[in-house]
Design goal:
- The chain has 553 residues and is an alpha/beta fold.
- It is 49% helix and 17% strand.
- InterPro entries: DegV_domain_contain, DhaL_dom, DhaL_dom_sf, FakA-like_C, FakA-like_M, YloV-like.
Length: 553
């Protein structure tokens, strides 16, 4: 094919080749799908999306006669993709095609796009996709689209531009593993980005007649075993406690994916629809088909609310509702059931957690990743809420979470940095609530509990509160030494005053193995005399590290 010709027949051949390639690589792409929902269906969604696009451009599925020009064919291709889009990646892919169609129409030449037009069309598609997504994330297919557009900028011929775009997409895809922590934890590249790469490789092959050879992308065994690198420790394990941080991109197992086509809605109504969906759901994507119609995608717990909101905005059709929890269990083979696993240091604290309904992993000082993974497996539950209680390294939590999925379990670490926070968290656990509600309530209870630690210095050191000597009592708040005293009884009263200076109704003391009755009596008397409105609870934790753990709620 001559470089300067990109006619309607070439568009149709590209569409057919893409469908064939996506069908062949569907399982490979599905296996990489961990974000925003690990439901292993990205390859399937992209394949169905492009199948609908190919049927439209060929004149099938009610499309009528095949388009006579490249610009018209690209418009049919994009409209078919919007109409038949499935999932986040399918909707985003439709916008790449829409960008190419708009550029071809703006060019106005019967010969279709040249090299510069391809770059400009991909750039348009990248902008459309980012504008459509409620919370764009780097390390996803959006990053790969940007790289493809930039990679072919300046190329004059379409064939050279297509090759350059595919090559840049391939390089960018390899970098996604390091750009998004959830991908690195799983040892995968972005599944949607791979779907885009397959389509771009098909374009280069259609134009040049030469097949592009790429390696098969699989999950990294090293990553699953915890050797993927130090960057894995950047994963924010407190996200489960913060609905604002997780609201824009992830979805829970109790949510639905709702998709429908929206007609007869003006821009004001669409903007209002977007705001309403973003307020009640996540992963919101709304895109246009170039003729006034829109495709709407959202994850939320109330599927009916998404449908009602669409009806208020305009006329809806082709409504698809998928329960994400059922789909995740079907795709990943998660076991049934839910359990809470607490990592506990101290023989006295073990029965406290057990009485509240938790399974316990007893440790002496800290827990190894292998011990935690074994304990997760022993629960035999599909969802395991882990209370690390400050005894598990964050990188080990990430690795265990990734490894547990291979044995059909999902680990949900809660932000508990001490046993007193863990006790506050397990106190609100309700196994009859949906897991997303239960996890949030437990994380909220942990976050609402301020904690302090009374320890004994084992060496001379410089602290925020001055120099300490071996044997001094240290009061630690938020990881910093705030109290240094020769006598433990003085240190604990000072520490209690600091903790209660900003308010509090309940104080919990978890007594360590090294504490004596005199110390506990001093703490109890101080609270009764100086803070009489505060309720005090004392439990024998018998932990080896802290002389006392203090929780304030």
């Amino acid at each position: 094919m001559r470089d300067h010709v990109f006619d309607a027949a070439a568009v149709r051949r590209w569409a057919e080749a893409s469908v064939d390639a996506l069908t062949c690589r569907r399982r490979e792409i599905d296996a990489l799908n961990v974000f925003p929902v690990p439901d292993s269906d990205t390859g399937t969604n992209v394949m169905h999306t492009f199948t609908a696009a190919a049927e439209q451009v060929s004149g099938g599925s009610g499309g009528g006669a095949a388009a006579p020009t490249a610009a018209a064919a690209l418009q049919d291709l994009a409209a078919g993709a919007v109409d038949g889009a499935r999932g986040n990646s399918g909707v985003i892919l439709s916008q790449v095609l829409m960008g190419l169609a708009q550029e071809a129409a703006a060019d106005g030449r019967a010969g279709g796009l040249d090299g510069r037009g391809l770059s400009a069309g991909l750039a348009r598609g990248a902008l459309l996709a980012r504008n459509a997504v409620s919370m764009p994330m780097e390390g996803t297919v959006l990053t790969v689209i940007d790289a493809a557009a930039q990679g072919c900028a300046g190329e004059e011929t379409l064939t050279a531009a297509a090759r350059a775009a595919a090559g840049a997409a391939y390089e960018a895809l390899g970098r996604t593993t390091r750009q998004l922590d959830v991908l690195e934890a799983a040892g995968v590249v972005d599944a949607g980005g791979l779907g885009l790469l397959v389509v771009l490789d098909c374009l280069a092959e259609t134009l040049s007649g030469q097949r592009v050879q790429r390696p098969t992308f699989v999950r990294s065994v090293d990553a699953a075993l915890g050797r993927s690198g130090a960057a894995i420790t950047r994963l924010d394990l407190s996200a489960a406690a913060d609905p604002e941080s997780a609201h824009g991109c992830a979805a829970g197992a109790d949510e639905y994916e709702v998709m429908y086509l929206l007609d007869d809605a003006d821009d004001t109504a669409v903007a209002a629809l977007r705001r309403r969906l973003e307020a009640v759901g996540n992963s919101v994507v709304i895109v246009g088909d170039g003729t006034g119609g829109r495709s709407v995608h959202v994850h939320l717990r109330d599927a009916g609310l998404a449908v009602d909101s669409g009806l208020e905005a305009g006329r809806i059709r082709k409504v698809r509702i998928t329960h994400l929890g059922v789909q995740q269990r079907r795709q990943t083979g998660l076991r049934p059931g839910r359990a809470v696993l607490a990592v506990v240091d101290g023989a006295g604290a073990v029965p406290l957690f057990e009485a509240a309904g938790a399974r316990v992993l007893p440790v002496d000082g800290s827990a190894s990743g292998s011990a935690l993974l074994a304990a997760v497996g022993d629960t035999d539950a599909g969802e395991v809420l882990v209370l690390p209680n400050g005894l598990v390294r964050s990188e080990d939590l990430v690795v265990v979470s990734a490894a547990a999925r291979r044995q059909g379990q999902q680990v949900l670490p809660l932000p508990c940095s001490s046993a007193v926070q863990g006790l506050a968290s397990i106190a609100v656990h309700d196994p009859h609530r949906p897991s997303s509600d239960d996890t949030y309530a437990m994380a909220e209870a942990a976050a609402a509990t301020r904690c302090a630690h009374l320890r004994v210095a084992d060496t001379r050191a410089l602290t925020w509160s001055g120099t300490c000597e071996p044997g001094d009592a240290l009061g630690v708040i938020g990881g910093e030494v705030m109290v240094v005293e020769p006598r433990a009884s003085t240190a604990v009263t000072t520490l209690l005053d600091l903790m209660l200076g900003t308010g509090g109704e309940l104080v919990t003391l978890l007594v360590g193995a090294a504490a004596d009755d005199e110390l506990v009596s001093a703490a109890r008397a101080h609270v009764e005399q100086r803070h009489p409105a505060v309720e005090l609870s004392v439990f024998p934790g018998l932990q080896s590290g802290d002389v006392l753990q203090i929780g304030v709620e």
